[in-house]
Design a protein that fits this description.
The protein is of the alpha/beta class and 293 residues long. 40% of the residues lie in helices and 12% in strands. It is elongated, with a radius of gyration of 21 Å.
Length: 293
């Protein structure tokens, strides 16, 4: 990428959240990890693999409607090859929700069988829902539980005031705060998270970020941005394309110069709302690259 912008953001409250999760993990049977389907690798918290040892796992590729359909399938295979159950969902319209209960049973089959052997019938699966900021974790919980969701009383050993959300006789959810990790594994992880809005735009150099994003789009989907803004010029570099977008969107300063800053923000508004079509910014192959870094 052309820019050297290094992104790292770890608000202090997240340290406390990780500490709390280590306590809560002792009480649960299943970890439900909500990821952004456009960047499943970058939107994972690498601490979860360590925290979730010896626990059943279910990954939900949220916002799957915004991601490339074929790449979604590749990611499902990727996670299932690792022994992690996986579904694509859209929390806003509840697409994929009908399959969740079935996947939970599949993921917790051993636990359910153990309970039966001990004479424990219908003890609900207790699941912790995890996810970094802005992947749609809260939307998922609210959509899946519905307005009529009953809250159970505090469980023994849980910090005072913590509540479980009782969905039905088979499943209870424990929410956790969205958490990032202290240091991103590589520069691209930070960029990808910034693209989808998981990092506060106010702390970013948006013009640099926009150029990085355009370069990545030109690699994966060469014509999408030009088509979205009706730009016909050939072989434009990222900053030239950004200037053209400014003109097309009417982002002009008083001196008749393109307002690159405003155009950069509009570019990300358009990407995040799906204006460029279904976009996946990571492929399963990129996991091998990160492993070697």
């Amino acid at each position: 990428m052309g820019s050297e912008q290094i992104i790292n953001w770890y608000p202090g409250h997240m340290t406390k959240a990780v500490r709390q999760m280590k306590e809560d993990i002792k009480l649960i049977d299943l970890i439900i990890e909500v990821l952004d389907a456009r960047i499943p690798l970058s939107s994972r918290n690498p601490d979860i693999d360590e925290l979730g040892k010896n626990r059943s796992r279910l990954v939900l590729l949220n916002k799957a409607d915004l991601a490339d359909e074929q790449i979604n399938k590749e990611w499902i295979s990727y996670f299932e090859d690792k022994g992690i159950f996986c579904l694509e969902i859209n929390s806003k319209n509840k697409s994929g929700f009908a399959k969740i209960q079935e996947k939970v049973k599949e993921a917790c089959k051993e636990k359910i069988e153990r309970d039966k052997k001990r004479g424990i019938i219908n003890r609900p699966v207790r699941a912790m829902v995890v996810g970094i900021p802005n992947v749609g974790k809260s939307t998922f919980i609210n959509s899946y539980s519905g307005k009529a969701a009953a809250k159970t009383g505090n469980k023994p050993g849980v910090t005072k005031g913590k509540q479980w959300i009782k969905l039905n006789k088979q499943l209870e959810l424990l929410d956790t705060p969205g958490i990032l990790w202290p240091k991103f594994e590589d520069k691209q992880t930070g960029l990808n998270l910034a693209y989808i809005g998981s990092i506060n735009d106010e702390i970013l150099v948006m013009e640099e970020l926009a150029c990085n994003f355009i370069e990545q789009m030109l690699n994966y989907y060469p014509d999408r941005i030009k088509k979205a803004y009706n730009i016909e010029d050939e072989c434009l570099k990222a900053h030239e394309l950004l200037e053209k977008i400014a003109v097309k969107r009417g982002c002009i300063l008083k001196a008749s110069q393109p307002d690159i800053s405003k155009a950069s923000r509009l570019l990300f508004d358009d990407f995040r709302s799906g204006k460029f079509g279904r976009i996946s910014l990571e492929r399963p192959q990129s996991s091998e690259r990160k492993k070697d870094d």
